[in-house]
Amino acid sequence: MKKTAVLGWSRAMTDIDIDTLDEAELLALNERIVERLHLLHRQKTDQALQQIKIGSAVMFEAPDGRTITGIVIRRNRKTVTIHTDDERHWNVSPTLVRLTGRHALDEVASKDGRVVPFTKPGSR
Questions:
Q1: pTM reported for the whole predicted model
Q2: What dihedral do alpha carbons 83, 86, 87, 90 form, nearest 10°?
C-alpha cells in the first residue's frame, strides 16, 4: 500500500467519532465490520483457489515451521488437501499454499473435475 493511501486511511478512521454511538449502534457497526472482513477473506481465498488445480505441485509452511511440499488432490471452498511424499494428507487454507511449479498432472483434466488418478511415489 502506498504511504499516501495509509495516511489517508488513518485520517479517515480518526474522523469517525464512535464516542457518540450507543451500544446498539456500536454492535451494528461491529456486525458490518465483521461481515466486511469475512467478504474480504472469501475474496482472498477464492483468488488463491483460482491458481491451484488438482495435481498442482505446492508447498506450505507447517505449524512447526517446516516447509512441506506435495500434490493437491482435492479442492474445497475453504481448504485444499495436499498429499505429501511421506503419504500424509494435509488440509490447508488456499491462502497459505504456494505453487512450486508445474506438475505433470496440471495438464490432465479429470472426468468429473474433482479427482485425478496418480501413482504412488516409487511405483513408476
A1: 0.61
A2: -40
